[in-house]
Each structure stands twice: as structure tokens, then as C-alpha cells.
Amino acid sequence: MDTDATTNSEEITAESADAVASEAVAATPVPEVPPVAKIPDPASAGDIVPDDGYRPDDYVETDVFAWANNLVQYKDELKVELFFISKNYVLYKTNLAEGLKKQLEPIFIDEMLEYILEGIDKGLIVRGFEAAEAEENVLQRTQVHRVDKLRETLGWLKTQEHEIVLFKESEHDINHMKGVLARVTHPEMKQPFYVAKVLPKSQVMKGQTGWMLRGDKFIPFDADAALRLPSEPQLLVLDQDLYVFSQSKLKSLFGYDAKEQAIAESKIREIEEMYRLSFAEGLGIQNLVKDKKALVKKLQKLEVGKVTQEQILTQSEDMDLNLMPDDSGAIIIMDDKDIAKFINLMNDDYMESPVTGERYEIIKKRLLKPDKDDDSLADIPAGA
After folding, report:
1. Which of 88, 108, 110, 273 has the smallest set of CB atoms within 10 Å of its CB?
2. Domain extents in the chain
3. How does pLDDT run across 258-271, given as a tens digit for each residue?
4. Cα radius of gyration (the chain)
5. What is the 3-state secondary structure (H, E, C) of 160-201?
6. CB atoms < 10 A from the CB of 305, how many?
7. CA 242 to CA 63: how far, in whole Å?
8. What does DSSP assign to residue 234?
9. Residue of 96, 95, 124, 106 whose CA lies nearest to 37
10. Which of 153, 116, 152 lies closest to 137, judged by CA?
11. Whole-angstrom Cα distance, residue 72 to residue 316?
């Protein structure tokens, strides 16, 4: 059984936690938080929702500037709970020594607040992540519902918190953790907010191979593991909004590339307009290609409409691919294998060798173009 799926109620404390707190985990200096800043007018701030036409029925846009100003008054009284995020997006509780708890606010809150509040005076604006490129003085935002792995991770806290166990190195292995999630609460706040960060492998040390420096003398590393958490802001969840301070960290931690996804979604809309498809109940192109990177990338480069519906059905029959029409002529799509065949047929990715008669799925191809020399020879009269 995958250790990520293990559920129990046993709680542990990392071996020599206090020693690690003072020696192996480097405390992050507490930056000065600027005074409460004036919130810019929404129009001048450019704070917009991604304009792709989709809005969840219960979606309410958040104002990160007002949130940051309001948070300052509670900053020294916040409760921060830390969780590990595994490679399988299972959450684990952490048991922290008191000395470490004092570091959580500087690591997860201070630099993020400083960035937002100082950014107001510098003209910081918020733009939809799917529509904006990363640039100076632009904070990108998307909606949590778009990022499947983030939704899955938060689901542990919102619906399965009683199943979350404490992290134990001997059972779970810190090298199998890919990120950390901080849940931040205060009695005066209506709901928590969440801060997520990538756990860099370069900042994790485990086993008996490390050294520690104590009193100008190196001594053996005597803990199970040690780590240093980054203090720079990466990802912030406010209600249904995800604020993205680092595109690369979002892709690394939750596998979400907004630009790739937006292009794929646009292609899917084109396909739905161009072709008649019949799906099994509860299915559609969107959920069938989800988490299939190769198909998503192929969709991005696909020239929709180059092949007709009739040509797709004919080629499917010729290649024995078993894509069939229903009584109305719509192509039947029953599962992810069918949608992969359909996309490959649209992209003309099947061929039969005229030499051997073998049939192939083309993984990579390059269009042949006439050489320049061939063009020049075409003008030379025969027999010259």
C-alpha cells in the first residue's frame, strides 16, 4: 500500500526537534512590514477576473489589497498550522517545537504582506493569470477551481481533515514531500487563508551524512532530517481565488500551466463547434484529457477543421481503430482511449506503410517541403 494513503491517529515529533530548530533549520529574518497603505481605486488597480466567460455560480471576487491592509492588525496573533504536501497530493500534519512555531509567521506571512503593501505605492495591479504574462508590478490571479491538484489538496482540509495523519519520517519519507501548506486563522477572521510553497530538495538534508557546526566545531548530524523553508511569496489562496507570485512554483507544485490550459480549452471549444461527438454519460473532452499532458500539448498545436468528420470516420475504419458513429452520425466517445484516437485522427497521426503494409501511430512528424534546388531545377527545360 502507498504510504501516502495510510491513515492513522498516531502523532510523532521529529527526533531532536529542538536541536534541529536551533541548528539545522535556519531562521528567516523578520522583514519590516510597512504601515497600512491606501487601497487603490479598483479601476486604477486593474483588478480583474480572468475573462474567459466562465464564472462559478457562487464565485465572489476577492480584493487582495483590502485583505492585506486588514491582516496587519492581526499579524502578531495569527495561528499558523503547517502541513506537508506529498507527491500524491496527500496532506500530513506536522508536530513543531515551540521555537519553530515562532518562525512560521516570518516565513509564510511577512514577505508576502510586504510585497502587496509596498506594491500599492509602486502601482501593483492584479490580472487574470490566463490572460496575463508575468511582468513587473503585476500580481497574477486565477480561480482555485481551475487548478485540480490544488483543489484536491485543499479537499483534505475541508472534507477529510479527520483522516490527516502526522508526518513520520520512518513511514512517509521527507523526500516524498513536494511542498508545504500553511493554514492561517484568527478568531476575528471569517475564514482561513492558505499559503503554499514548493519544498526545494536542495534545502532538505536527511540521514547521517550531514555535519553540524556547534561552538566552532563540526559534529555529526544527529537528527532524522532537516530542512530550510523559503520565505519568498509563492502561492496564496483567498476564498476561491489563487494569487500567483511565481508561475514556475505553481507549475512545479500543482502541475498547472495556465497558458497551456487556456490554449487547450480554446481548441476544445473549436472542436465542439466543428465536430459532432457523442459521449458516455458524465464525460466530455475536458475531463477526458485532464492530467494527460501529451494530449493537452497536442491540442495546443492542433489545426481544427483540417480533417472533416467523414474523413475521420473513414480513416478510423481503414486503420481498424473502432471509432464508430451513432445513429445520428455523431462519433461515439466512450473513454480516454477513444478521445486519444479522435485527436490523433484530427492531427493525421496514423499511417499505413505502402512498402510493408504495417500501420503506425506517428509520435513526431515534420512536414516535407521542396528544396530550393528542386524549385530551380523545375524551370530548366527537359534535355538541357
Report:
1. 273
2. 3-255, 261-361
3. 777 777 788 889 99
4. 27
5. CHHHCCECCHHHHCHHHEEEEEEEEECCCCCCCEEEEEECCH
6. 12
7. 12
8. -
9. 124
10. 116
11. 62
Angle at the Cα of 149 from the Cα atoms of 145 and 151, rounded to 5 degrees: 40
262, 286 Cβ separation under 8 angstroms: no
Going by C-alpha positions, the residue among 162, 235, 160 that lies closest to residue 194 is 235
Question: Rounded CA gap, 328 and 125, in Å?
Answer: 50
What are the tens digits of pLDDT across the range 133-168? 667 788 999 999 889 899 999 999 988 999 999 998
246: cell is 511565481
Are β-strands 138-143 and 125-128 bridged in parallel, bridged antiparallel, or unpaired? parallel
Q: 3-class SS at 318?
A: helix
Q: Which three cell numbers stand for residue 63?
A: 480584493
Q: What is the DSSP letter of 319?
A: T
Distance CA 384, CA 380 (A): 7
Query: Do the beta carbons of residue 61 and residue 116 sit within 8 Å?
Result: no
Beta strands in the chain (DSSP E): 79-86, 91-93, 125-128, 138-143, 177-185, 193-198, 204-206, 211-214, 217-220, 225-227, 235-238, 241-244, 277-279, 331-333, 350-352, 359-361
Record the pTM: 0.67
Query: pLDDT grade, residue 241 (50/70/90)?
Result: very high
